[in-house]
């Protein structure tokens, strides 16, 4: 049985932190479209060059581009027992693409597919975004408000340099919320109607949300 978990929620709702931890816990790959796209940008691939202008504005990159990246990633051997998918789908069109991708890759295999929605008070999220820092080396995420590194600018885990994402500014964050409300929020109803949505209260500490997450994954 393949475990296929996807995650919905507004920017900075804590999905990245929780899904990274969940991937380790379930021994499944953490597939995160934002990181995959940033990697393409870093390597200056044609996909990265195309994606950059959209990401810098807080818009969704074109569906064909992101679906191709996701399909290639989910076809890899390490996804044979399932995946933790963070950041895809982000629109109804992408949800249909994912159904198609799963159909092609899961032929003859049964799967447990769930969409987990992080339900959160959005009023604090812009502050969370501008205070977010991530490690250049290992990808660990920090927040100067509630999960500060022990040493300023240095990753506790690996000693790597902590930096701020270019799209974690107040202006781009607002655009990302607008994109989320317009394109991604309708997926909550979409997956509810399909009978696969699990909603969790994503307010509170990392440990509180983790406990709630463990209650809905099986
Ligand atoms: P994230 O790291 O999830 O906050 O994503 C950063 C940016 O990458 C988003 O604001 C989008 O511009 C782009 N992005 C990530 N995932 C997707 C997706 N599924 N579809 C389109 N664009 C995406």
> Which architecture name does CATH use?
3-Layer(aba) Sandwich
CATH superfamily: P-loop containing nucleotide triphosphate hydrolases
Element pattern in H and E: EHEHHHEHEHEEEHHEH
What average pLDDT do the residues reach? 95
Explain this structure.
Helix 2 (33-42) packs across helix 3 (46-57) and helix 4 packs parallel to helix 5 (92-105). The two termini are 12 Å apart. The model has no long low-confidence stretch (mean pLDDT 95). The protein has one domain (2-121, 183-217): 3-Layer(aba) Sandwich (Rossmann fold), CATH 3.40.50. It has nine helices and eight strands. 46% of the residues lie in helices and 17% in strands. The chain is globular, with a radius of gyration of 17 Å. The strands form two sheets. A five-stranded parallel sheet has the order 2-3-1-4-8, with helices on both faces. It has a three-stranded antiparallel sheet with strand order 6-5-7. 33% of the residues are buried. The protein has helices at 15-26, 33-42, 46-57, 63-74, 92-105, 125-130, 170-184, 186-193, 206-216, and strands at 2-8, 30-32, 82-86, 111-119, 132-135, 141-143, 162-163, 197-201. The structure holds adenosine monophosphate.
Key descriptive features of the protein:
single chain, 218 residues, alpha/beta, Rossmann fold, 3-stranded antiparallel β-sheet, globular, binds adenosine monophosphate
